[in-house]
Amino acid sequence: MDVIRVATLNCWGLKYVSKDRRERIAAIADAFSNSDHDIVALQELWVEEDYNKIRSAVSHRLPYAKRFLSGALGAGLAIFTKWPIISTSVTPYSLNGEPIDVAGGDWFVGKAVGSIIIMHPILGKVQVFDTHLYAKGGEDGPEYKRAHRLVNAWEFAKVVRQAAELGNYVIALGDFNSVPSSLPMRVILDHAGLFDAWTVSHNYVSPPSEVISPVDGIVKYGVTADSPLNSYRDPKPSLDPLVRMYQGKRLDYILFRRPNHPLHNPPIPKLECQDSKVIFTTLIPRNNCSFSDHFGVEATFAIGMPEAANRPAPETNDILKSTASIWAREASEMSLTTVSAVLGALQAAYRISWGRSRRELTTFAICILALLIFTFGSMALAVPWVNSILVLFTIAITWLATTMLYEGFIFGNWERRALRSTLEDLELHKQALVEHFSQE
């Protein structure tokens, strides 16, 4: 039976910031060069030198590659594949945090979803997606804290669903910065009609009722981040209840689905997940450190030939009925509860954005007033050392004023337009769902 083996890993490859980057990238390149994967998707591969190192190492097995560039520093996404790439695309997410959040850095790197279409000898066109969703917001507290990630999830689900509607098989990999039960993952799985390779290939295990081992967290629950077995985990005890319960979080996924094909006449090959597991869980022997601050995930897909179709050609009415019920049969839709939850979170984020912009523009006005006072004050004072201090204050206040103007006016309007656009999309989608369910 023909199989496809795929893998994903967040490489944590930020220049000057990520610890032991050169040693880890060399180890990652060596590991993949000796693996049997047919498709590899990487995230946080920011440095071109690192990308070239990995590409050179795996080129004998994965000769085709694409690095996706977006934002000021690049999206950090790359895909390596065994089969020829016939087209590529990258879709930057409309919201990636705030520019003032320099420590987070998401706004500067330009989070996005990149994709390639490969020509598989049996399946035909397979569209492979690689993404890394907005990180900040965690899992606790109200959903509006994760509004940017929800917008990412909706935009990701739309492009994946469109790929399937165009007749492509879909394999989606990446760091989704969301646990399986989260609202962003419900949006992605339900709207795009995706299956989670881990869930499909593992028997359901109920949430632990007592403290489990870090190994059980990985083997049973697919933990890929914040594991005690990762050398880069914060040594302080985590306050996150999910991390305490599962000995980490599952944030990295391999998702898949077949094309939309309403009548399946003629039938199409099957794509089924045989197995999936967490990888890169050991330490690099020479350096005694982990390969990254995340573990990776791999999955093996079996390609099954369809059963012979012994059915007559469909009548026109059958085609119409099939088209009308495609939501119910091919791409499972978000529930009205999920849509309402997303709408509520984005509406709250919209109101908060307005309030933040007002505060920032008020700060800008105060800075302008202070600049005027310092300007006239320096003219009235003839003491040189006092004037020097006023000059320093003027520089600092000018920087603050410029930042507040950009944050409050330019970025604030950008954020609210993106939120409003997503809100309008979801309102229309909710109306369509209500109409659809009322006709059943």
What does this molecule look like?
- This protein is of the alpha+beta class and 440 residues long.
- It is 43% helix and 20% strand.
- The chain has helices at residues 21-33, 48-58, 106-109, 147-165, 183-192, 197-201, 214-221, 241-246, 316-324, 326-329, 336-380, 384-439, and strands spanning 3-10, 39-43, 64-68, 77-81, 85-92, 112-120, 124-132, 169-175, 195-196, 252-257, 270-279, 283-284, 289-290, 296-304.
- The strands form three sheets. A six-stranded mixed beta sheet has the order 3-4-2-1-14-11. It has a six-stranded mixed beta sheet with strand order 5-6-7-8-10-9. A two-stranded antiparallel sheet has the order 12-13.
- It is a multi-pass membrane protein.
- Pathway: Lipid metabolism; sphingolipid metabolism; Sphingolipid metabolism.
- One of its GO terms (cellular component) is membrane.
- GO terms for molecular function: metal ion binding; sphingomyelin phosphodiesterase activity.
Quick summary:
The chain is α+β, with helices and mostly antiparallel strands and 440 residues long.
Highlighted features:
440 residues; alpha+beta; Deoxyribonuclease I, Chain A; 2 domains; 6-stranded mixed sheet; 43% helix; 20% strand; hydrolase; magnesium; Endonuclease/exonuclease/phosphatase domain-containing protein; sphingomyelin phosphodiesterase activity; Sph/SMPD2-like
